[in-house]
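Take the subject:
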Amino acid sequence: MKELQTERLTLKPMSPEYLESTHEYASDPENTVYMLFLPNDSIDDTLNYLKGAEEEFKKEKPSFYEMAVILDGKHIGAVSLYLNESGDLAEFGWMLNKRYHGKGYGFEAAKALMEYGKNELGIRHFIAHCDTENIASRRVMEKLGMVCTGEHGGRHSKNFKEERREFTFEIFF
């Protein structure tokens, strides 16, 4: 995959080319408040993530797709799909720099990657998880046509000392 185009966005494979812009949002505690493995503690953490994503794209059959979200030539976030072993189920993830929240970019990027997964990879089952307090991500999932299929505890993140609750959303095609 080279890139995907939407009405306003371009999705390109993540790579170290996006180190500074990725680290800006991935190391910001406010921007990553509901994320499990973030904020990144160092720019080396961010670089290692980007190198891993770049290496995965070189494989004949990647097990995950990490895409940079580009708006008017500026990197503003990322959207991802992580496939199960049989390749028929994928878990979504997305994150935007907080300066670009609330403008529909997360939905637009996720929708494009969902369509790619469905049409090009044959994925028929998509799932996503979010902290129960992450209203924005929940709305993206609902707008994508996903349905909440569960709520449970056990969510631990770098931002919260206490255990959190999370929603699971799914869609089948």
About this structure: The longest strand covers residues 74-83. Residues 4 and 101 are 21 Å apart (CA to CA). Residues 105-121 form the longest helix (17 residues).
